[in-house]
């Protein structure tokens, strides 16, 4: 088994993952169990699509439960960064090739608490903008080898 990585989360993201875990371990697990029991009562399981689908869903749910347990165990709560500085949990407005785009910088699990696209702090662009301030221009090397420059237009804590 590989080394487990610390996951940096804001308190809000951590709380949302805890809520998801509680739902998946409780109500959702119970719903799946009832569907399996109902399908089992119909008889021949080898040709019962509802049974097969419910068992597959049960496997996915249990996998996500295990994933959430590990993430929450390895989570480190970080303070949302101050306005004007890019950090984990920042809502960042970037200008790239004349276009403005907004992203949240943080762990992929931040996607559960925001409608914005999430940039990993471990990605080339994430590493380049981490710690930058509004008005800074930073460069990073894209996976295709090109050097790309972006301007930080705004950075504020995700609310």
UniProtKB/TrEMBL annotation:
Pfam families: GreA_GreB, GreA_GreB_N. Keywords: DNA-binding, Elongation factor, Protein biosynthesis, Transcription, Transcription regulation. One of its GO terms (biological process) is DNA-templated transcription elongation. GO terms for molecular function: DNA binding; RNA polymerase binding; translation elongation factor activity. Residues 7-77 form the Transcription elongation factor GreA/GreB N-terminal domain. Residues 83-155 form the Transcription elongation factor GreA/GreB C-terminal domain. Belongs to the GreA/GreB family. Necessary for efficient RNA polymerase transcription elongation past template-encoded arresting sites. The arresting sites in DNA have the property of trapping a certain fraction of elongating RNA polymerases that pass through, resulting in locked ternary complexes. Cleavage of the nascent transcript by cleavage factors such as GreA or GreB allows the resumption of elongation from the new 3'terminus. GreA releases sequences of 2 to 3 nucleotides. PANTHER family: TRANSCRIPTION ELONGATION FACTOR GREA. This is Transcription elongation factor GreA.
